[in-house]
Amino acid sequence: MANNHLGFYLLMLLKIVTTFAIPPKTLKEACIGEIGFELQFNIYNDSCPEAEAIIFSWVENAVMEDSRMAASLLRLHFHDCFVNGCDASVLLDDTGDFVGEKTAPPNLNSLRGFEVIDAIKSDLESVCPETVSCADILAVAARDSVVLTAGPSWEVPMGRRDSFSANKAAATNGIPAPNSSLTDLVAKFQNVGLTLQDMVALSGAHTMGKARCSTFSSRLQSSSNTNGPDNNPDFLQSLQQLCSGSDIDALAQLDLVTPATFDNQYYINLLSGEGLLPSDQILVSQDQTREIINSYAEDTSVFFEDFKISMLKMGSLGPASGNDGEIRRNCRVIN
User: Which among 114, 144, 140 has a CA at the least distance from the CA of 48?
Assistant: First the structure.
């Protein structure tokens, strides 16, 4: 495990920051909005008071061992929430008579961090059995991943329950793809109740992490890519060199400047034509999205504030509740 003293002080700082992270009114609007299901703060204070400390400790340890894990855990939460809401369906393994979401194209050989979630769940089950849902673990781990990479903090409302099912088709068709057009991106965010502003703010998560050459190959193949005002020929040439070999699984940093830091560099990169994924660079092609990008590139605090609010909205999407879900003992299988 990570250094206990460092973890304790970081957790205490996290608690202080989250207390003042977003005004209560904004929090309530973000968590309820038009979704109609109200999650609760401090829901485990009595039933599992160590829950957030345990999650933070494991995430801290994982990120210290592999800085890329912060982006991976954040992405797990995204891919979970975009398919039937934040219900931990993304964590379910395929079995002989059950098809999960892990083999859907957006997830296959792409999602990481399942072992970290397993370790957190195992620890929590030993302290407070069948109390903390896997869906809540994903939401808190995503927040902690941002905090541990110098990003903003927010208080995570909880009370999600874990699904009894998964939906591979919805994962295949509903999760935004790296080659999506702007129209398709907007539609997929709107389909789950998120706005254009949410889309641009949440895309800022690509300020850290890596992507395989196969996910941005179209960025390199079209001759039009090198001629537009929002493209950078030198950047594209460096990508072509990286991906010129036979290894289509070669990895590139989503943000070459500060790859392991959660900041606003992603937006600065977009404005200089250095967005890695086609679905990233396409965001500057429309006036409305470009205006938002400019505001984030100019002021980190504006980006951080909007990102927190959008994360709260996304984290409240259609969570399973009551008889619609359970608290899994093992996040990979239904009880």
Answer: 140
